[in-house]
């Protein structure tokens, strides 16, 4: 399994190859809201608010779509998410070990 850093590199190379490496941040964020809506729809189905069939595989795909866009947005700003993840995890660890 690739590391988060390797996955972010994979997204960067894929986007560059397909001419999507210069997409505007605002467009990526809008696309993220679209994917979040798709996730919400699956959850609403699961909880019975929507009377459509809940498909766990579809939810998995939507979660992955938004992960891709999160990595893509981080690439736009040259933010290394693996490094940020480790910093965040350390903050959380300190917070939960306080009491
Ligand atoms: Mg989707």
Report on the structure:
This protein has a single domain, classed as Helix Hairpins (Orthogonal Bundle), CATH 1.10.287. It is 74% helix and 0% strand. The protein has helices at residues 4-17, 25-46, 56-76, 81-96. The site of magnesium ion has 4 residues, from helix 2 and helix 3.
What profile does the largest beta sheet have? none
What is the total tally of β strands?
0
Number of domains: 1
Radius of gyration over C-alpha positions, nearest whole angstrom: 16 Å
CATH top level label? Mainly Alpha
Q: Which hetero compounds are present in the coordinates?
A: magnesium ion
Give me the CATH superfamily: MazG-like
SSE arrangement, N to C: HHHH
Under CATH, the topology is which? Helix Hairpins
- DSSP helix fraction: over 70%
Going by CATH, the architecture would be Orthogonal Bundle
Number of helices: 4
Kindly report how far apart the N and C termini lie. Answer: 35 Å
Extract low-pLDDT stretches.
none
Q: What percentage of amino acids are in beta strands?
A: under 5%
Shape: globular
């Amino acid at each position: 399994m690739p590391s988060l850093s390797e996955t972010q590199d994979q997204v960067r190379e894929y986007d560059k190859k397909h001419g999507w490496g210069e997409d505007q941040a605002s467009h990526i964020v809008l696309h993220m809201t679209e994917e979040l809506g798709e996730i919400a729809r699956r959850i609403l189905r699961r909880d019975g608010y929507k009377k459509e069939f809940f498909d766990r595989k579809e939810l998995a795909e939507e979660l992955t779509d938004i992960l891709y866009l999160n990595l893509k947005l981080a690439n736009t700003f040259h933010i290394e998410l693996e490094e940020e993840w480790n910093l965040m995890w350390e903050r959380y660890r300190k917070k939960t070990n306080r009491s």
